[in-house]
Amino acid sequence: MFLEPMLAKSSHCQLPYPGWIYEPKIDGMRIIAVKFDNQKTILFSRRKLSENEKFPDILKTLSSSEESTWVLDGEIAALDQQGKPSFNLLQRARDKVLTVFYLFDLLSLRKRDLRRLPLSTRKDLLYHFFSHLPSPVRLIPYFSEEPKKVAAKIKELGFEGVVAKRADSVYTSGKRSSAWLKFKFLKRQEFVIIGWTEPKGSLKPFGSLLLGYYQNNVLCYAGRVGSGFSEQTALELYTLLKKLEISSSPFSQTPPIQFPRSLSIHWTKPMILCEVAFREWTALGKIRQPIFVGIRTDKSPLEVTRE
Fold it and tell me: pLDDT, tens digit, for every residue of 174-229?
């Protein structure tokens, strides 16, 4: 039984306190794991696609659970050599990088729906029934101390931010709730790639990527990103985008967006998503100091809105 994940709202205020618990924000892929009557285990992405073939070790470990039926919520992350989650590495899971499934919620157990129970109770049950599972499955640590100390510790551990959750919150599937708030140390979000520019005086396949997002189903321009790519990632991206190249801009804004004449732009169908880290949004609605993080495959383009 697939259950849609509960989603957190982005926040730029101070961490709320007390009555909240805090988890590291994992830089990875959201997964709903389901075990059916001791017969089959499936790792579902947010789009309800099976990710079993990508993560066989995680699947094997979860399947070894003594409990016959359950639904778990968590995030799969790839760890770098320092043991820190890296979304870019997750794109190359096929290269035998270490991937870990961080569990943070228990939605159903023994065919009983637990979503109406307080989060603190669900956490207790999660730790009681699943703490024995070996790596690559881990239970995400959580804290209830003073927020500044928690944030400093989580940042030191190399995570991308903090997720604050009300200790008494119920689980609302498919909803983005203010009972869960996400705080990123550096702003980052998904964008739709809508084109690329020709490189200037280099052997790179492109100079920068043109980015967009949807607002009321209208594609809006967010700026360009030209750093953060490895040679391999840049080549793979260029190959994907070249196959989707179109002759005219996908924007329907009036008046049309004016780009510098010095830019040689290639347009592409708005189908490929990527995650970008950046300092802030400018007054003109563009991202400042962007850095490419990785390709995203767990959302549809129309889900990509300005956060």
Answer: 999 999 999 988 888 999 999 999 998 778 899 999 999 999 999 999 999 999 99
Which tens digits make up the pLDDT trace of 250-276?
A: 987 656 777 887 889 999 999 999 999
Closest CA to 307 of 281, 270, 274, 289: 281
Environment class of 164 (CB within 10 Å of its CB; exposed 0-12, middle 13-18, buried 19+): buried
- Hey, what's the torsion of the CAs at 50, 58, 300, 179, to 10 degrees? 120
200 catalytic? Reply is no
- 152, HSE (Cβ side, Cα atoms, 13 Å): 5
Which domains, from first to last, does the chain contain? Answer: 7-184 (3.30.470.30), 187-303 (2.40.50.140)
**Within 172-278, where are the H helices?**
231-243
Which of the 8 DSSP states describes residue 302?
A: G
Residue 118, class by beta-carbon neighbours within 10 Å (0-12 exposed, 13-18 middle, 19+ buried)? middle
Q: Please, are residues 208 and 226 in contact by the beta-carbon 8 Å criterion?
A: yes
Question: Given 25, 165, 184, 187, which residue is catalytic?
Answer: 25
- Is the pTM value of this prediction over 0.90? no
